[in-house]
Write a structure and sequence with these properties.
This protein has about 350 residues and is of the alpha/beta class. It folds into two domains: about 130 residues, Response regulator (Rossmann fold); about 170 residues, Orthogonal Bundle (Hypothetical protein af1432), CATH 1.10.3210. It is about 60% helix and about 5% strand. The relative contact order is 0.08.
């Protein structure tokens, strides 16, 4: 018998599919109608006047200031599409302000165009090191300014949409985690150990980032599991367990539309597979299980073993490793990877 959640979720997917085109059209129309918003920062009023005139002709909305410190607060408050930033300013020059913008989590994705009368190689290197996205040299060419602002604004809006989508998914995942009887500390621990073990293994930066993201998103599919199953006290019966197992495919379906989740998706779908093929959802075995999923499954079970749960006390590190080695002997884990994980835990006990 098909578990009821499968049918329920398929109806949701069908409704979402039918509305996808309409939603995309709405989003595109909103983006088309909203003018590009520029924040300009220059200590010379005459330079600001030139930028304001150029933006007005192009149909851009512009907010400006002569004070770089005030400018940063303006950027934080308005979250513009593009920042036009003069380099030669007293007190806080453009290079330092650009670096400040790029070091701040709230503003780092906003494109910055440095505007300068300087044209030396060192100045451009300083701009690149500060994190700027483009340069314009004084005197400003209006058409060049317009073209560069439009290009960077397009990228900004795409990354802003992507960032919003990821934040929504993370919020859902954390709410599910709390509902499931765990606090956000579980996600934080998995994120931390994922980065540390990934570095220990010498993984690439994108793979380490995927492990960190999976720490939050691995069980997001539980949003589609009925409370009667998700919150049940005690052991699930066979039919209930079949329903629970669908959380990995539900989670993968939620992440599938986002290209940024390409490396995370296999972890979410396959972190309950087993080395001997006895896991779910696809019964993969051995090296057919994605490498990052094999890594993450060790992290997930280790965290579960070493922390208190409603159904068990917290085991010591040595006891947890002993249990995992016993499970490995019965075919649950990648033996080579478990050995590396054991070495990692022994050398990084915290």
């Amino acid at each position: 018998m098909t578990p009821p959640i499968t049918n329920a979720f398929s109806h949701v997917n069908a409704a979402n599919d039918e509305n996808t085109v309409t939603s995309d059209k709405i989003n595109n129309k909103v983006a088309e109608r909203r003018p590009i918003h520029v924040v300009a920062i220059d200590d010379e009023p005459s330079a600001i006047a030139v930028l304001e005139a150029a933006c007005a002709i192009a149909g851009f909305k512009i907010s400006s200031t002569n004070d770089p410190h005030e400018g940063f607060e303006l950027i934080r408050k308005l979250e513009p599409d593009v920042v036009l930033l003069d380099v030669m300013m007293p007190g806080l020059n453009g290079f330092d302000l650009c670096k400040h913008i790029k070091d701040n989590n709230h503003t780092q994705l906003i494109p910055v165009i440095l505007i300068t009368a300087l044209d030396s190689r060192n100045d451009r290197l300083n701009g690149i090191e500060s994190g700027c996205d483009d340069f314009l040299t004084k005197p400003i060419d209006r058409l060049e300014l317009t073209a560069r602002v439009r290009s960077l604004a397009r990228v900004r809006r795409l990354t802003a949409d992507l960032d919003d989508a990821e934040k929504i998914l993370e919020s859902i995942a954390k709410n599910v985690e709390a509902k499931d009887g765990n606090t956000g500390e579980h996600c934080e621990r998995l994120t931390h150990i994922g980065v540390a073990f990934g570095e220990f293994l010498g993984l690439s930066t994108p793979d380490i980032k995927a492990l960190a993201r999976a720490g939050v998103l691995h069980d997001i599919g539980k949003v589609g599991i009925p409370d009667a199953v998700l919150l049940k006290k005690g052991k699930l019966d066979k039919e209930e367990f079949e329903v629970m197992k669908t959380h990995v495919t539900i989670g993968a379906d939620l992440l599938k539309p986002l290209h940024s989740m390409e490396r995370v998706l296999p972890i979410v779908r396959h972190h309950h597979e087993a080395w001997n093929g006895a896991g779910y959802p696809d019964g993969l075995s051995g090296n057919n299980i994605p490498y990052l999923a094999r890594i993450f499954s060790l992290l997930d079970v280790f965290d579960a073993l070493t922390n208190e749960r409603p159904y068990k006390p917290a085991f010591s590190i040595s006891k947890a490793l002993e249990i995992m080695k016993e499970e490995c002997a019965s075919g649950k884990w990648d033996p080579n990877l478990l050995e590396k994980f054991s070495n990692f835990i022994i050398s990084h006990p915290k």
